[in-house]
Amino acid sequence: MKGTKSFPSSFLIMEPSVLIDKVKTVIDPLLAEDQSYFCVQIKVKPTNNIKVFLDGDNGLPIERCTFFNRKLYKAIEEEAWFPEGDFSLEVSSPGVDEPLLLQRQYQKNKGRKVLVTMNDGIEKEGQLLEVGEQEITLEWTEGKGKKAVTQQLVIPLNNIKTTVVQIKF
């Protein structure tokens, strides 16, 4: 019987933007219950790999990651977003090497050493001294001993390409 074979639903791939919106409809109410946690970013790969990056004003304990993962996984399964069940879900905090994306992340990292790359490619490393609505203030020291001079620079957020927290060992 020509033309009557079923078409595997695994070939029916949901648009990433639609999937991201669906994830937000589940995760946002959960985050609203405890406003110390927030969503940083949601990524979707063509292989139906969903990565949800969450953070918290005072960090994100593994127990909370597990809680959010279980709730989101259950919703995906119950609503049959992937009828064949071929998806993977990862809920975690952004890694230490991930750039800061939200003003709330900047606020959380106030006082830490950061590397800021500006839109024109210029890099500045210093302590994240202040965080405003539209700008940040960096402070660093040049020179040593009696010749040491502390400097500050106010950088508009819209002039920043990336900001990465610098971890010193």
What is the H-and-E element order?
HEEHEHEEEEE
Major sheet: order of its strands? 7-6-5-4-8
Compute the average pLDDT.
90
The radius of gyration is: 21 Å
Low-confidence stretches: 6-11
Q: How many alpha or pi helices?
A: 3
| Class derived from helix and strand content | alpha+beta
According to DSSP, the number of beta strands is 8
Shape call: elongated
Q: Please indicate the percent range of residues in DSSP E strands (runs of 2 or more).
A: 25-35%
Distance between the termini: 68 Å
The major sheet is characterized as: 5 strands, antiparallel
Please give the share of residues in helix: 10-25%
Short description, anyone?
The protein has three helices and eight strands. With 169 residues, the chain is α+β, with helices and mostly antiparallel strands. Strands 7-6-5-4-8 form a five-stranded antiparallel sheet.
Structural summary, described in words:
The protein is an alpha+beta fold and 169 residues long. 24% of the residues lie in helices and 35% in strands. It has three helices and eight strands; from the N terminus they run αββαβαβββββ. The chain has helices spanning 16-33, 62-78, 103-108, and strands spanning 37-45, 49-56, 88-92, 113-118, 123-131, 135-142, 149-156, 160-165. The strands form two sheets. A five-stranded antiparallel β-sheet has the order 7-6-5-4-8. A three-stranded mixed β-sheet has the order 1-2-3. Helix 1 crosses helix 2 (62-78). It is elongated, with a radius of gyration of 21 Å.
